[in-house]
User: Fold this.
Amino acid sequence: MGIDRRTFLKGLGVGVAGIAPACLLSPGSGHAKALPANETTEFMGVLVDTTRCIGCRSCEMACADSHGLEVPDIGDTSVLEKIRPTSEKQWTLVNRFQTEKGEVFVKKQCMHCNQPGCVSACLVKAMEKRKNGAVTWDGNCMGCRFCMVSCPFDIPKFEYDSAVPKIQKCSLCWERLQKGEKPACVEACPNEALTFGTRRSLIEEANKRIYGESGKYVPHIYGEHEVGGTGYLYLSAVPFEQIGFRTDLGTTPYPEFSKGFLYSVPIVLLLWPAFLLGVNTLTSRKDDVRTKQGGAK
Amino acid sequence: MNGADATAINTVEEKRSLKDIIAFILSELKPRGKMLTPFNVISGLTIVLGAFLILYRLAKGLGAVTNLSQDFPWGIWIGFDVMVGVAFAGGAYVLTFVAYVLRTDKYHSIIRATVLNGLLAYVFYAGAIFLDLGRWWNITNPLFGNKFGANSVLFLIAWHFLLYMLAEFVEFSPTIAEWLGLRKVRKFLGSLTIGAVVVGIALSTLHQAGLGALFMMAKGKIHPLWYTEFIPVLFFVSSIFAGLSMVIFEGSISHKVFSDKIDHKDHAAYNGILIGLSRGCAVAMFVYFFAQTLIFIHGWHWSLLNTPMGYWYLTEMIGLVAIPCFLFFRGARYGNIPLIRIAAILTMIGIIINRLNISIIAFKWWIPLSERYIPSWMEIVITLAIIFTEIWVFRWIVTRMPVFEGSPAWAEEKH
Assistant:
């Protein structure tokens, strides 16, 4: 987990209290060790070009197929009348929006944040940010649903109707990536609306498209900076709020919001007891008695 | 425990065999007093029904009994049972601070009941988390294993709840030793109290604030009048007067229900205690109200006040913070006990509303009422069953152990 280690080390640098243990743990070096080569893998991601999506929903079918979910009937277009959220039975789906430039289809799934709120929320590391960028879930989960509260995009979904519930969400086809394959949805897309690659190359490609065809796109890549950057990146011909995106999320990674509190924890745990015991000793009346009796023995 | 029993314990031999102790506990387990009171019947039936619903929830999953949804992952079991229950339990850390760290003798007579209340609140209301966990069989994962999410606020809260329950148990344990007549054990446990108190206060500070920190990443989902980066601080400060109000409320009821256990001398001194608590509440609430006002002004949310959510916010801030704060000041100034009780009840309603606002009502406020989370009758029955069980256990303990009536003569505390 490259990013976690990096932020963790950064965190250590901030807290004075953190520096001492870091030095103690790596005697001689004094500096953070360089990451081994196999951990410097770049985050992978998907670029969604909403101007290319034709709403065929092949991605929905491929996703359901490869994850053993209920396969949707993509011939039935009536579901497009409403804007649908993803669900515990559907990790990805396509919504249709009426915009100033006509109909636009937008695929929705987990954004695979660079620094995911859900991962920092999870107290048992059931949610994990993998080295290749995928945010995945596993059975270590307690079902507390804190990840759902902490996700800026409301992506993790819970199986309320099961006695053995799981959190369901897009995993960026983590298992397929391990085998060197592309995510199922990307492979199924017939119109190259989805491009798979490293985040860096996708941002380059997106910029190329924006500047290459002046006026076709709004000059913004959704996900480049939102909530600290996401694995899924979007291009659009219309302002993003017209196609169902929250544009008020800011660029701060969500884990940062609870960091202030977390930093205060060791300080309070060290200083409070010392202070309280000090007060307790100061208010002790033992010495008064002794003085009255003529001083200490 | 009546007078005869108390003497019996006072005169027991120093050395009691394990067999005697077990026989004593078994004799104490038998129910006492009138069985078929209206309270017993109603609470008993609720507990039975609640127990069945809990089994049903475990067999069928959360969706079978709760109205939780993908949009509202947390309902009243978190928003009320845990958030409010833990805030109300705050009296224990505040009073142990005053009584043990600052050594203020005035509050010693209510400290045991308060600590017991705090301990039971954590066991039952924080215990309600268990019901809310979809995968409850994994509840020990944050404690054992090799996958600790140590960066998670909830990880901290899980550990703190557990450790704080232990600390409160240690604080309360001398009472149990006195009940069992174990003199040496009592002496040893008594020597642990100050340590448990100090650790307990540090833990409380952090997890009272931590409950608020849980909502830090719900930025954008909680109405801007309630979301602020200072929620943790506000939760901590409000737990002070929430806990003290609960002490006033619980004490007022206990003094009626268990009046046979409380000395007349204590009855008289009790008004002095209430006035002291009232003053404490008033000051803490003033600080809280001041902080809320500053946060509001800095947030620049004037335009939001003239909206339905704005009126609701003002109801909470003026009606359930500023007004009870004023009533506490007046009640303490003029020694008006009924006024103090009214202020305590208003304050408690305010805390309930505040915690529910942040976790449920102002959460995703844009969603229309028809699609919002409203607790099912089953969630409410289970919550009531938990509250009633707690009251039953509390009653069982205070009618047997020296909680209200003070220590037996052999165990008088020395300062």
